[in-house]
Specification:
377 residues; alpha/beta; 11 helices; binds flavin-adenine dinucleotide; 16 strands; 5-stranded parallel beta sheet
Amino acid sequence: MAIEHIEKSIIEQAFERGLVKPNPPGERTGKKVAVIGSGPAGLAAAAQLNRAGHLVTVFERKNRIGGLLRYGIPDFKLEKNVIDRRLAVMEAEGIKFQTNANVGENISVDLLKKDFDAICLCGGSTIPRDLNIPGRELNGVHFAMEFLEQNNRRVAGDKINPAEEIMATGKHVIVIGGGDTGSDCVGTSNRHRAESITQIELLSKPPDSRAEETPWPLWPMMLRTSSSHEEGADRFWAVLTKSFHGDADGNVKSLKVVDIAWTTDQITGRSGFKEVEGTERDLPCDLALLAIGYLHPQHTGLLDKLGIEYDERGNVKANNYQTNIENIFSAGDMRRGQSLVVWAISEGREAARAIDIFLMGKSTLEGKAVSPLAIEE
Ligand SMILES: Cc1cc2nc3c(=O)[nH]c(=O)nc-3n(C[C@H](O)[C@H](O)[C@H](O)COP(=O)(O)OP(=O)(O)OC[C@H]3O[C@@H](n4cnc5c(N)ncnc54)[C@H](O)[C@@H]3O)c2cc1C
């Protein structure tokens, strides 16, 4: 029984028994904080800042609140009523939400700076890594999030323009990338009733059980098989994508791949790979989904207009969540780079505490370093 399951069971029981009730702060500080982005980092920051008595507005450029919880992770992994019931509590506690509010585009950053005492940037890591191989421009080659976001909208009841529909139904689907996003593409393609689903990964197949190099409490380096994989997909590791090939109408029809062998240089310790001779082959492909990660947050618009500095990976640079601008903080994937929901929540809470101290000189909010259960990073 994992801690995750215990926690889920506790909160489900609590909602079922009506124990999760709005708990607005007793007093307001009169300070106003803008949270940009409504993913788990933004929501966690907003909840804590509101608890500290600040007036919080969450700005979200999409038409619904939730970030990747809403539009990345499919319903079969996270039912959206889980987000909605929490949002109802947060609203009743006094947090304001503004959707279709693209800060830096239809909401001016100057107005925001004037109206708020502090800003918390939680815009996520949104620039996907591309696959620059011949044929990338063919119809039917998409970033995973184009496919997943559209499907989440479809499931939520939105009308999708037929000309823009991305469906896996009856198609040979190739998912490129072996992580969570790739697994969600597999599960969604199965629900669309794809003809075949193949997931390929550049890295070697991880061991079936925890590798010796990653003992507890490190994140275990091991093969992960999700329910999406169990529903059906061919999985291949150590495969390099070479080129997409299409028909006369510009539709993708196949993907040329080759097996690779990973090597480690004995002197430098650097790893590299060699193509395995005689393994080049064409996989049938009517829909290719690129799930190979994210580079960094979007710089144009919000961040560049604010004059935010970046770290060497292009993420928002921050010291204890505070950016190069005194009253602007950042948390979640936007600061940390592409990561996990638990990290986004943790960062949002920690950033809220840092903002509270900035505004009030002290904070009674919980923090990792001040908790009796302090976690070393
Ligand atoms: C398909 C997929 C599956 C995943 N599955 C898992 C999983 O199973 N488990 C797990 O732990 N993690 C998973 N992750 C990772 C996890 O979802 C992210 O790490 C997490 O959501 C990051 O939270 P965040 O709040 O930092 O950013 P996000 O969730 O990305 O939210 C950022 C929000 O900011 C908004 N925004 C950006 N710029 C602006 C602006 N200028 N104005 C207004 N709003 C703006 C965006 O529209 C977005 O809603 C998955 C990711 C993907 C893509």
